[in-house]
Inverse folding.
């Protein structure tokens, strides 16, 4: 357990964030598919990335692939293993076995992969026999995890005639698909994306040294801290305006929530401004990871909000809309949710919780709620280690910024 408090309600300091987990995980797969291996500088130290690194190091000698609670690792690994000769059983944690995988499996079956569900149809664990895949036009829904689409795109150049991937229905998390294609392009892969059809022909990845950007998604928690502080100024190195990460839209969104972003040569500086909207209505279909920090920020600022496009939050590490609603009630914050949106009333009186915050084995729950320490005496979380999944130094960075963190 860990207890945090911010007596002065101010925050300041220079925070070195983790490298982008999303970029790191894609680069690991691309490097493994590349004929000439290359160096990756500033690779993320997040648990998800370490799990994927281990899988890619061990798959030739290990037949049981344990992805633990790393959804990206499981999805990317399944597509990657489909291109390799061999047999594996791919599994994960209890929660991972509750997260649907059928859209990706259906596409891999179409490509000629032999797969079998070992427990419940449509969910891990999966038995997979990889080998030579046949090219085929694939049809996949866009309102699913973008990681299914990214997993297929990254293996496309290895197929004899590539892949023509038609996306039907509205595409969620579109910036993550763009990120995948832009990274593939950095390594020599040509593609076309017109309307709802992505075409990638057979070709070779060309290795080159790559530096991973720091994580814009992790910056969302610091935007929230500054927004809820009495006074705040945070510098974050290695973030830039021209990032390939969609979550860099943070600077635009939070400009309406009391936070100014100053872009320097190789850093950003967050400070308070006086601009505060009375109501926030956003479609976060393309930016689902920003949902939780924005929910908490609007609650803390007393802003009326309606945030939609959050359907995929229900199949993450926890059922996030239900979980955040439950935990915010401990602060006397009431919300209304359905399967894809949340509404927050204005000017709710925030109270000191009389119980510990349950992290629900979900890294983003604890990190999103932590900025409410700017509004109350203290917050206790039942699991300090949950942040290791994406941001291992989160508590250490809070102390750098002037927030007390006490293990208990």
């Amino acid at each position: 357990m860990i207890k945090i408090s911010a007596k002065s309600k101010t925050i300041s300091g220079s925070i070195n964030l983790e490298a982008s987990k999303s970029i790191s995980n894609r680069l690991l797969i691309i490097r493994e598919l590349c004929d000439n291996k290359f160096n990756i500088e500033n690779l993320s130290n997040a648990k998800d990335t370490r799990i994927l690194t281990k899988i890619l190091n061990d798959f030739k000698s290990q037949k049981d692939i344990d992805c633990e609670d790393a959804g990206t690792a499981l999805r990317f690994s399944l597509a990657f293993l489909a291109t390799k000769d061999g047999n594996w059983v791919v599994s994960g944690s209890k929660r991972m076995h509750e997260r649907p995988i059928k859209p990706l499996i259906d596409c891999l079956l179409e490509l000629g992969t032999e797969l079998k569900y070992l427990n419940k149809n449509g969910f891990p664990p999966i038995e997979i026999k990889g080998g030579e895949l046949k090219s085929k036009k694939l049809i996949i829904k866009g309102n699913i995890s973008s990681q299914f689409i990214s997993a297929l795109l990254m293996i496309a150049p290895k197929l004899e005639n590539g892949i023509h991937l038609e996306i039907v229905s509205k595409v969620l998390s579109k910036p993550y698909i763009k990120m995948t294609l832009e990274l593939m392009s950095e390594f020599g892969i040509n593609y076309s994306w017109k309307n709802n059809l992505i075409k990638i022909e057979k070709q070779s990845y060309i290795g080159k040294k790559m530096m991973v950007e720091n994580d814009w998604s992790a910056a969302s928690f610091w935007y929230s801290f500054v927004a809820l502080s009495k006074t705040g100024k945070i510098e974050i190195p290695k973030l830039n305006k021209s990032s390939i990460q969609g979550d860099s839209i943070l600077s635009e969104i939070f400009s309406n929530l009391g936070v100014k972003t100053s872009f320097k040569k190789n850093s950003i500086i967050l400070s308070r401004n006086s601009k505060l909207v009375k109501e926030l209505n956003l479609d976060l279909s393309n930016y689902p990871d920003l949902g939780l920090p924005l929910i908490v920020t609007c609650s803390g600022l007393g802003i009326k909000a309606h945030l939609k496009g959050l359907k995929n939050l229900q199949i993450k590490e926890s059922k996030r809309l239900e979980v955040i609603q439950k935990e915010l009630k401990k602060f006397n914050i009431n919300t209304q949710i359905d399967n894809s949106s949340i509404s927050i009333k204005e000017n709710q009186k925030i109270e000191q919780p009389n119980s510990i915050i349950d992290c629900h084995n979900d890294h983003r729950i604890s990190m999103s709620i932590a900025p409410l320490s700017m509004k109350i005496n203290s917050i206790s979380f039942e699991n300090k280690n949950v942040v290791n999944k994406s941001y291992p130094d989160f508590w250490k960075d809070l102390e750098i910024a002037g927030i007390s963190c006490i293990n208990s």
In short: The two ends are 5 Å apart (CA to CA).
